Amino acid sequence: LTECKLHLSSFLLVFGRAIHAIARISDEFCFDPVEKGLALRSVNSSRSACAYVFFSSMFFQHYCWAAVSESCQKEKPLPLPCKLIIKSVLPVFRCINMLERNVEKCNIYTNSNDHHITFQLICKHGVVKTHNLTFQECDPLQAVFAKHMCPNVLKLQSRLLADIMIHFPMSQEEVTLAVTPMKVCFRSYADEDTADYSKAMHTEIQLNPDEFDYFQVGVDSEVTFCLKELRGLLAFSEATSSPVSIHFDVSGKPIAFSIDDMVLEASFILATLSVIGDEAAPEQPPRVSQHQESKPHWNGNSHNMELAAPRSPLAKQETKIIPKMSNGDCTGIEGATIIETNDCATRELRSTHSDYHKVRKLQSHLPYFSKQGNKAFQLFHSLFFGAISFKEKDAINDTLHSLATASDTEEDSVPTQRSQV
Amino acid sequence: MRFRAKIVDLACLNHFSRVVNTMARLAKMCTLRLAVDKLYFILSDKVDNGGVSVWCELCQGNFFDEFQMEGVAAEHNEIYLELVPENLSRALKTAQNAKTVKIKLTNKHCPCLTVSVELPSLSSTSRIVTHDIPVGVIPRRLWRDFREPSVPDFDVSIYLPVLKTMKSVVERMKNLSNCIVIEANLSGEMNLKIETDLVSVTTHFKDLGNPPWVSDDESPSSAQVKDLENMAEARIDIKKLLQLLAGQQVNPTKALCNIVSRRIVHFILLHEDVSLQYFIPALA
């Protein structure tokens, strides 16, 4: 059972913006209350972006968390399961302006017995909006990323970051960040394969290291990442008015945008494009990673993001390795290797071709959240909208946006990065 | 061929941006003609733009602090470039508090108009934003396609009503019909009409005034034997009219239109240092 209350409207705005930022990454996210606070996690379908927002219990007016043991389940009492909610929660926080003006309080409470999570918005004039959502259990994934090992670190005010990104049109997909000890440059990236490469307008912004609160460049590098996925974080960081830190390395290695505040922290980790010259990555046999070993970190050949479950689920005892696609097809084919061990599940997405674009288009082999493999039905019931629909878990693609959606002039629509299941 | 220009005054930058924004609303692609003392944005009447043509003329001295142009050849000292005005509009949009804006013709992966914006920053060195806008260089043999259109032999010439009012009227009419009839007479009366199977709507404007044109082959004092009440009319695509009206952010000093009955409507909008002519052909 978890209960948390958000009272001040400015906090509600921050919370709403966090949900929107995560919505840019994926259509589903994991709502993970722990003793110290509430974590929201999300990974996009191509595993090329991963978001994590943590609100400490102090962020809330009132935060109460208690583990419940489920007697109906297996013999071992489960720790409080992590819950997965699809973007049906987005309509709750859809209209940010309305949130600020009309909502006085927001109560969020869960009851793992009936797998419901309730968002209750107490608005002005005695209006109470209650959203009852069913969740499924999930195993949250988080990227394994050693920020402290990044040679390049930039820290800047969120206002400055917004002022930089505004020069790129909303349609700009990718952006390259190029640094040397003397200067910082953000420029638009155009895939040479696209038809209008020569017709596209190219934009470049050059800044002096002085403009940054903190500037450390250990190695000259140029990293290209997806700007669209980041836009949500920009709005979120402006709401928190905290500075944003950027940790990165050379091309191919992930880049992390993070916010660290007294009551919250957030990090958005994006894969970066590898420089094409690097493509002769030799095939490596799938590695089994044991819990005791230190997590395999980046080497020059694996352009991937490692994702691991932060806690031990009720896992199978044996080690299972799902083989990759045949080694014969080298270009543009990715394989997903899922490795389960005793205590942790590590998913590595290896690329034989370094272009992460291809990752996005490829089918993922297994839904990342399915651990126990049992089918669960997804029930969405919102008192506010008064509609009920049943969906099979795998048909999540048919989302329930046919129900009333408020017009939202602020944000772009949620990106459709879906794996074709 | 060389071109470099610089704007340092924010008001000039603002004004130039507005002109470019207007062009961006009127045409997907257009021609930028650079001469020693003037710039022109030109769209010539091709089938693929619905027969519409646009001629926008600016005095460079009113906008640019520096302006250097070397044309294709000494005796043809001009440059004609084909570009997407929306790109230029976007480049200028985020330059609204710039220290300087420089525009020059460059050759990156292809010929480009490079807009270089120097923005104030928190540090000692300015922030520099550079936009490379791909352009096509139009060869001299095609220049005759882009000559200034002549004023047509119109039946009626009349000043337009306040553009904002006209725009809101036309905007509502757009929902009811695809074409609109503009009719006007030499008594300062203009009607905007739409007619469908279900409904007809007409908006009447009075006392607009008719501009005094002096014809070459007549002395101005000779009596005009013209029926002042006679309406000249043309039926045009409503969207094209709306594109013109929607693009006007500032009220022009003078706004008028010349109607050649059932042939063409010629709009002239004059600001202090910019003139815009817009031709919309009549529909069958």
TrEMBL record, chain A:
Keywords: DNA damage, Exonuclease, Hydrolase, Nuclease, Nucleus, Phosphoprotein. Gene3D superfamilies: 3.70.10.10. PANTHER family: CELL CYCLE CHECKPOINT CONTROL PROTEIN RAD9B, DNA REPAIR PROTEIN RAD9. The lineage of its organism: Eukaryota, Metazoa, Chordata, Craniata, Vertebrata. GO terms for cellular component: checkpoint clamp complex. Residues 281-302 are annotated as: Disordered. It comes from the Eukaryota. GO terms for molecular function: double-stranded DNA 3'-5' DNA exonuclease activity. Its EC number is 3.1.11.2. The gene is Rad9b. Signal peptide: none annotated. Belongs to the rad9 family. Its main location: nucleus. This is Cell cycle checkpoint control protein RAD9A. Pfam families: Rad9. Coiled coil: none annotated. It catalyses: Exonucleolytic cleavage in the 3'- to 5'-direction to yield nucleoside 5'-phosphates. Transmembrane segments: none annotated. The keyword Nuclease applies. It is found in: Nucleus. It is an enzyme of class 3 (hydrolase). Component of the 9-1-1 cell-cycle checkpoint response complex that plays a major role in DNA repair. The 9-1-1 complex is recruited to DNA lesion upon damage by the RAD17-replication factor C (RFC) clamp loader complex. Acts then as a sliding clamp platform on DNA for several proteins involved in long-patch base excision repair (LP-BER). GO terms for biological process: cellular response to ionizing radiation; DNA repair; DNA replication checkpoint signaling; mitotic intra-S DNA damage checkpoint signaling.
TrEMBL record, chain B:
Component of the toroidal 9-1-1 (RAD9-RAD1-HUS1) complex, composed of RAD9A, RAD1 and HUS1. The 9-1-1 complex associates with LIG1, POLB, FEN1, RAD17, HDAC1, RPA1 and RPA2. The 9-1-1 complex associates with the RAD17-RFC complex. HUS1 interacts with POLB, HDAC1, FEN1, PCNA and RAD9B. HUS1 does not interact with RAD17. Interacts with DNAJC7. Keywords: Cytoplasm, DNA damage, Nucleus. It comes from Nothoprocta pentlandii. Gene3D superfamilies: 3.70.10.10. Belongs to the HUS1 family. It is found in: Cytoplasm, Cytosol; Nucleus. This is Checkpoint protein HUS1. The keyword Metal-binding does not apply. Its main location: cytoplasm. GO terms for cellular component: checkpoint clamp complex; cytosol; nucleolus; site of double-strand break. The keyword Cytoplasm applies. Component of the 9-1-1 cell-cycle checkpoint response complex that plays a major role in DNA repair. The 9-1-1 complex is recruited to DNA lesion upon damage by the RAD17-replication factor C (RFC) clamp loader complex. Acts then as a sliding clamp platform on DNA for several proteins involved in long-patch base excision repair (LP-BER). GO terms for biological process: double-strand break repair via homologous recombination; meiotic DNA integrity checkpoint signaling; mitotic DNA replication checkpoint signaling; mitotic intra-S DNA damage checkpoint signaling; nucleotide-excision repair; response to radiation; telomere maintenance.
